[in-house]
């Protein structure tokens, strides 16, 4: 799934479950960081789009970089988000823009590891165990269409849970 929003669907469920222990913004930054490899390989004309970054070892390295860069960058992005909200929108859409290191770390590593998992299912050239193994036993275990649908369904479920929780919290505070 090079440079795709579909990876964010599972992230919405992780956010719904993890709440303040999971940064969805850092998760998104991790997805973007992981896809820099196939994007660069595509621009370079390579026949193999997924290399060492798309392995558990590579995801660990990228995750560590995203932890360090993701906290300040994610906080800036959320400040910008909040700044652009109208007073009415702020009631519902304001997001706390300070991250803990825990939620940053969880978002980064859940992001990079889930990226390897989903890309391993979708792409034959992903080697999740590289450099310790050269086999991708996950490739094709479900069709690309079903994988895409799964990501979309997870995104809808996650957003519905988040909105429901937000609605009830908002309603309780109004009473």
Number of strands: 0
Instruction: Tell me, briefly, the overall form.
Output: globular
| Gyration radius over CA | 17 Å
List the helices and strands in order.
HHHHHHH
Q: Any descriptors?
A:
175 residues, mainly alpha, 7 helices, globular
If you had to describe this structure to a student in words, what would you say it looks like?
This protein is 67% helix and 0% strand. The chain is an all-alpha fold. The chain has one domain (5-174). α4 crosses α6 (101-122). The mean pLDDT is 88.
Structure summary:
This protein has 175 residues and is mainly alpha-helical. The protein has helices at residues 8-18, 24-34, 36-43, 56-83, 87-93, 101-122, 144-174. The termini are far apart.
Secondary structure elements and pairings:
Elements: H1 8-18, H2 24-34, H3 36-43, H4 56-83, H5 87-93, H6 101-122, H7 144-174
Helix pairs in contact: 1-2, 1-7, 2-4, 2-6, 4-6
């Amino acid at each position: 799934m090079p440079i795709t929003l579909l990876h964010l669907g599972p992230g919405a469920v992780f956010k719904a479950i993890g709440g303040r222990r999971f940064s969805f913004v850092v998760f998104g930054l991790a997805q973007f960081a992981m896809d820099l490899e196939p994007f660069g390989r595509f621009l370079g004309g390579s026949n193999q789009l997924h290399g060492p970054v798309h392995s558990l070892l590579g995801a660990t390295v990228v995750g560590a970089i995203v932890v360090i860069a993701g906290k300040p960058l994610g906080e800036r992005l959320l400040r910008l988000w909040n700044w652009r909200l109208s007073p009415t929108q702020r009631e519902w859409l304001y997001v706390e823009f300070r991250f803990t290191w825990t939620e940053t770390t969880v978002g980064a590593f859940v992001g990079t590891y889930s990226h390897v998992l989903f890309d391993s299912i979708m792409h034959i050239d992903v080697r999740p165990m590289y450099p310790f193994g050269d086999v991708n036993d996950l490739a094709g275990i479900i069709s690309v269409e079903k994988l895409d649908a799964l990501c979309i369904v997870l995104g809808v479920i996650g957003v519905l849970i988040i909105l429901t929780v937000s609605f009830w919290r908002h309603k309780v505070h109004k009473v």
